[in-house]
Amino acid sequence: MTSLSPADRQFRKDPERQRYTLHVGDVLVSEAEYRILGDAIAFPHTVTAPEHRGNGYADLLVSFAMDDVETTTTARVLPQCWFVADWFEQHPERADLLSR
User: Fold this and answer.
1) Domain presence at residue 1
2) pTM for this prediction
3) Which uninterrupted H or E stretch holds 63?
4) CA distance linking residue 64 with residue 37, whole number of Å
5) What is the secondary structure of 11-79 as a DSSP string?
6) Which residues touch 27 (CB under 8 Å, ≥6 apart)?
7) Which positions of the chain have pLDDT values less than 50?
8) What is the rounded distance in angstroms from the CA atom of residue 30 to the CA atom of residue 61?
9) With the C-alpha atoms ordered 89, 94, 98, 100, is the resulting torsion angle positive or negative?
10) Are 88 and 79 in contact, with CB atoms under 8 Å apart?
11) Domain with 73 in it
12) Are strands 40-48 and 76-79 parallel, antiparallel or unpaired?
């Protein structure tokens, strides 16, 4: 996991491009795409720039995205990409967010 302080990281929701992003300074290091499908939000793709992999950025970003989904919608999550699916396996306490 990265040792950067929270002040070094900037999380953003970009509704126009249907994605969540994580920037370190001015550099985009990770993004998670989403699609709204009725009463569900699908997460089809999560990626971290190759030079920034191994720092825990995608985990931090998905946590941010799930917090946002939980606090701003009643939608349930469809984890279509392997990383989001694995994230839920590592965070069973968040399973209530999953679409049934």
Assistant:
1) no
2) 0.91
3) helix 57-72
4) 20
5) EEEETTTTEEEEEETTEEEEEEEEEEETTEEEEEEEEE-GGGTTSSHHHHHHHHHHHHHHHH---EEEE
6) 49, 52
7) 1-2
8) 7
9) positive
10) yes
11) 6-97
12) parallel
Residues in a beta bridge with 45: 33
Kindly state whether residue 52 falls inside one of the protein's structural domains. Answer: yes
Contact 29, 57 (CB under 8 A): yes
Q: What is the pLDDT of residue 100?
A: 78
Our CA angle for 48, 75, 42, nearest 5°, is 35
User: Hey, how many other C-beta atoms are within 10 angstroms of the C-beta on 84?
Assistant: 22
What per-residue confidence (pLDDT) applies to 70? Answer: 97
What is the enclosing helix (H) or strand (E) of 9?
strand 9-14
Number of domains in the chain: 1
User: What pLDDT is stored for residue 1 in this prediction?
Assistant: 47
Determine the Cα angle at 49 with ends 73 and 69, to 5°. 5
24 domain-assigned: yes
